[in-house]
Write a structure and sequence with these properties.
The structure is a single chain. With 238 residues, the protein is mainly alpha-helical. Helix 1 packs across helix 3, helix 4 packs across helix 7 and helix 4 runs antiparallel to helix 9.
């Protein structure tokens, strides 16, 4: 009987742990989306009290989520003063986008050497899902699928050192990648979709050199739009 009770207690503890882990992941995702979608400007403090009320959580899980996003480079933690959005200059953005373009270029070249038919089917499915969100004007879910495609290419490339470098940079420019598709006329967004068609076609043909160039140019085009936004009087998505 004692053994049965111990087993029940262990299962209850395991269930609680899974629920806690799920809650934590959910808060991190919601907070990441909130910040990436441009709700705070570079250098602006993160309003912890308001976000706790909006997310329906206490300060402790929110601050744990902030630590995760700080490790991704999206925000900065301030000693005993909360957190703020990481601010980047135009020169920072130019350099980071070029560096990320180089990393994605290498990932594409390696992925073309190693991609399987199953891998290709996975990316094709993500692309179709992404395109559906584009047609519906759902920028948030479009961006989620967009990033999943880039992450899939990185995973297929199979280079751990490359993955570490990529992850150390991706959080720092994530919100700017999102903002690049927010021009009022939607021209950059439609251009990005066409570029993803080219990415998919190059993957199908295992055209590594071609894909490397497409991915670098893809990041360079986003960089151009972001810098232009920062130079404009409105500064819509700084």
């Amino acid at each position: 009987m004692d053994g049965l009770m111990e087993d029940v207690m262990v299962r209850q503890d395991e269930g609680t742990g899974r629920e806690s882990s799920t809650l934590h992941a959910g808060i991190v995702e919601r907070l990441r989306d909130y910040l990436v979608e441009g709700n705070l400007a570079g250098g602006q403090r993160v309003p912890e009290k308001r976000l706790c009320e909006e997310f329906g959580v206490s300060r402790t899980p929110l601050r744990e989520a902030l630590k995760v996003l700080a490790s991704e480079g999206l925000i900065e933690l301030l000693p005993n003063r909360g957190a703020r959005m990481r601010a980047l200059s135009q020169d920072d953005i130019r350099e980071l986008f070029d560096l990320m373009g180089g990393l994605e270029s290498l990932a594409g070249r390696l992925a073309c050497e190693r991609i399987t038919d199953d891998d290709l089917q996975e990316i094709e499915a993500l692309h179709q899902e992404m395109y559906g969100y584009y047609l519906r004007g759902d920028r948030s879910n479009y961006f989620r699928c967009n990033q999943a495609i880039h992450e899939a290419i990185l995973r297929i490339a199979g280079n751990d050192a490359l993955t570490v470098m990529y992850r150390s940079l991706s959080g720092r420019i994530r919100r700017f990648r999102y903002a690049a598709n927010l021009d009022d006329r939607g021209e950059r967004w439609s251009a990005a979709v066409r570029e993803h068609e080219l990415i998919l076609d190059a993957l199908r043909r295992r055209a590594g050199s071609e894909l490397a160039d497409i991915l670098f140019d893809h990041l360079r085009h986003k960089q151009t739009v972001v810098v232009r936004k920062l130079q404009s009087p409105e500064r819509v998505q700084d």
